[in-house]
């Protein structure tokens, strides 16, 4: 990154650093985020044996042991070396765990660290990082990489993102049940919810310059204009999607984008990933358990093409990314963009289904306390929501601290997802957070809601 780019990013941080986060509060926040991420990593890797850790459960995913050592290596590179100025511990493995140098399908053939060594390496790095965190100034006037604890927040988010990836691998694996969690809360007033709400048009602030841990593609804050539109108050449910299937949705070319129809025909698709028909019922496999598809739960494991086809069939469309963010953040009473649909406060268990607290989405209409001022619910957590938008930079975008996080993915090949899922931790999920993926992807924890013009 050029010095000029670093200055532009730093200027954005200094304009908006949250005033209530003093250096010691930031230090505590960073420590909690790092420890929480590592606790989850341990759960995901200690719940299976070494054979399961080193196996490749799908060519779409890395062996779990690769993710484990990659987490440690990224932490070493950014926090030990870049922030702490320490000598490298294992520089010889940097290329081995470079996500751009080796495809996921090829990683099992690499000379990866075995499970015990990978664990020891990640633990060694973490012990040294905690010393660096204790000694690093986190004040506003510091280096852009450490100002307001950015690098520590970035690394915690990176680990949580890989934890979500490892949870996807757990869903794809065919071994015995390894994970368990309590059921999410049931809705308390779903019967009274309207199916859709009107979002008034006009300008609003999209993106952020204020959140000190926001990543580069969320920046900078800027004004966007949208027309009036209607949006679903809940994500599309499995029951909704079943009606699309039963009406011949996968057999009707007219509902599908050309590339989506090619995908359906080439792979013989008839339903979301992990669904199958048995004795007149739809069943699905979820983390090793086969169960009847829950009709009131948001549909999961659908590609962008499937979401788009359903929306066309229903006489609706997918929301644009701008529409989604306005529905999620705009407060008509104040005219302000909120950090989350419910306000600026951090997520709590009664507001959103996050952090692998549950191993499934909650039923549509749950989490009344998490609804937006307009009454749109479950915008944060439960399922990633496909939008109609390509993944593109905001005006004034500055790559930071490396191009490979966002910049190299911009363009028409990737579609934007918003809102997070039950597999996403709160540190890596906010009203401005942007995810992206190829429109064919189905293994991710993706669903959608629909919109329509006025």
Automatic annotation (TrEMBL):
Pathway: Amino-acid biosynthesis; ergothioneine biosynthesis. InterPro entries: CTDL_fold (IPR016187), DinB-like (IPR024775), DinB/YfiT-like (IPR034660), EgtB (IPR017806), EgtB_Actinobacteria (IPR032890), Sulfatase_Mod_Factor_Kinase (IPR051043), SUMF_dom (IPR005532), SUMF_sf (IPR042095). This is Hercynine oxygenase. It catalyses: gamma-L-glutamyl-L-cysteine + hercynine + O2 = gamma-L-glutamyl-hercynylcysteine S-oxide + H2O. GO terms for molecular function: gamma-glutamyl hercynylcysteine sulfoxide synthase activity; iron ion binding. HAMAP family: EgtB (MF_02035). It is an enzyme of class 1 (oxidoreductase). Keywords: Iron, Metal-binding, Monooxygenase, Oxidoreductase. Residues 34-166 form the DinB-like domain. Residues 196-452 form the Sulfatase-modifying factor enzyme-like domain.
């Amino acid at each position: 990154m050029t010095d000029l780019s670093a200055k532009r990013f730093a200027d954005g941080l200094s304009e908006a650093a949250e005033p209530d986060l003093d250096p010691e509060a930031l230090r505590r926040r960073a420590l909690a985020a790092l420890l929480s991420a590592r606790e989850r990593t341990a759960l995901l890797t200690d719940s299976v044996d070494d054979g399961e850790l080193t196996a490749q459960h799908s060519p779409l995913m890395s062996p779990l042991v690769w993710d484990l050592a990659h987490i440690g290596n990224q932490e070493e590179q950014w926090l030990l070396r870049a922030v702490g100025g320490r000598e490298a511990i294992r520089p010889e493995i940097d290329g081995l765990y470079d996500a751009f140098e080796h495809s996921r399908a090829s990683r099992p053939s690499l000379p990866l660290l075995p499970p015990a060594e990978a664990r020891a390496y990640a633990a060694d790095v973490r012990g040294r990082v905690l010393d660096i965190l204790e000694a690093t100034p986190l004040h506003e006037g510091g280096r852009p990489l450490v100002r307001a604890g950015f690098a520590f927040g970035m690394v915690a988010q990176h680990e949580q993102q890989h934890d979500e990836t490892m949870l996807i691998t757990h869903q794809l694996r065919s071994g015995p049940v390894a994970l368990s969690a309590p059921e999410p809360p049931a809705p308390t007033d779903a019967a009274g919810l309207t199916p859709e709400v009107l979002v008034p048009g006009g300008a609003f602030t999209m993106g952020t310059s204020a959140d000190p841990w926001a990543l580069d593609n969320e920046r900078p804050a800027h004004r966007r204009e949208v027309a009036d539109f209607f949006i679903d108050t809940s994500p599309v449910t499995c029951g909704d999607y079943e009606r699309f299937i039963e009406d011949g949705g996968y057999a009707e070319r007219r509902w599908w984008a050309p590339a989506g129809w090619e995908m359906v025909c080439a792979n013989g698709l008839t339903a979301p990933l992990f669904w199958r028909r048995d004795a007149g019922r739809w069943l699905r496999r979820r983390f090793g358990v086969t169960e009847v598809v829950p009709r009131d739960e948001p549909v999961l494991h659908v590609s962008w093409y499937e979401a788009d086809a359903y929306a066309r069939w229903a006489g609706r469309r997918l929301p644009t990314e701008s529409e989604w963010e306005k529905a999620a953040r705009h407060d008509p009473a104040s005219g302000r963009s909120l950090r989350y649909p419910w306000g600026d406060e951090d997520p709590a268990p009664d507001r959103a289904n996050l952090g692998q607290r549950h191993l499934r989405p909650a039923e549509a209409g749950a989490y009344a306390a998490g609804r937006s001022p307009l009454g749109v619910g479950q915008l944060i957590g439960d399922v990633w929501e496909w939008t109609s938008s390509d993944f593109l930079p905001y005006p004034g975008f500055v790559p930071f601290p490396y191009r490979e996080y966002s910049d190299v993915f911009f363009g028409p090949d990737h579609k934007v997802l918003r809102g997070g899922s039950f597999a996403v931790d709160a540190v890596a999920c906010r009203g401005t957070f942007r995810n992206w993926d190829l429109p064919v992807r189905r293994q991710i924890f993706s669903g959608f809601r629909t919109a329509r013009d006025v």
